[in-house]
Amino acid sequence: MGVAIGEGQGSMLDPDPSIVMSSGMADPHAAGFEALFVKYYPRVIGVLYRVVGDRGLAEELANDVFWKLHRQPWLAASDGDVGGWLCRTATNLAIDHLRATARRRQHEEAAGRQTAGSGASSDPLKEVLRAERAGRVRAVLARLKPAQAQILILRASGFSYRELADSLGVKTGTVGTMLVRAEEAFQKRFRRMYTHEEAL
Q1: Do residues 165 and 175 touch, judged by C-beta distance below 8 A?
Q2: Which of 48, 59, 105, 166 has the highest local Cβ count within 10 Å?
């Protein structure tokens, strides 16, 4: 089962190093940091946006991701898997955000208000249902084991099996099994949380 977490990415992914550099990050010790930012920002913001469904919030979390990278110059300067580290950090931050908002039940309310006030859709009911389903998916992800939520988020963001293996630090041959187990856990949790409600 594919997990559709968010809608589209489009041209909003254009990197703007000044967003992060304005925090005083462009110092002599950050050699190559701007190049890493420009290279990986589109993928990081894409992953975050698919999870949180909000452009501004995705940018805030992306700033946190690159701030963490900047505070580890040994990683930015190394030949290690910076891309994998960035994606793992992004998904961890996104999952933490989902858990916090799930506890307060604010994310679903905000999505409902945004949909009701947009008026841009030719089919308001369809938009409400889509926002409701996206909210449910995010709520379920917030209750999965971090590793399961992480692999589902990255796969839904378009990562290949090889990219998943690199990002998660596992062998490519184990990715399929991990995905199947994560999808089964997602389906089980989703049914537990919402099947009874839909039957009413």
Answers
A1: yes
A2: 48
Q: Measure CA 19 to chain center.
A: 19
Amino acid at 70: H
CB within 8 A of 135, min separation 6: which ones?
107, 108, 111
Contact 69, 75 (CB under 8 A): yes
| Spatial contact of 83 and 166, defined as CB atoms under 8 Å apart | yes
Phi, psi (deg, nearest 5) at residue 101: -70, -30
What would the mean pLDDT of 131-136 be, rounded to a whole number? 83
Structure tokens at 88: 């793992």
pLDDT at 126 over 70: yes
CA distances from 125 to 6, 106, 116, 195 (A): 18, 21, 10, 21
In the block, tokens 């249902």 appear at 129
User: What are phi and psi for residue 58, nearest 5 degrees?
Assistant: -60, -40
DSSP element (H, E) containing 200 = none
Alpha-carbon distance of 42 to 49, in angstroms, equals 10
Q: Is the pLDDT of residue 54 over 60?
A: yes
The candidate with the shortest Cα–Cα distance to 39, out of 73, 7, 95, 86, is: 86
Give the residue ranges of DSSP H helices in 53-171.
55-70, 73-77, 82-104, 106-118, 124-143, 146-156, 161-168
Whether pTM exceeds 0.70: no
Which amino acid does the sequence have at 50?
R
Which amino acid is located at 4 in the chain? A
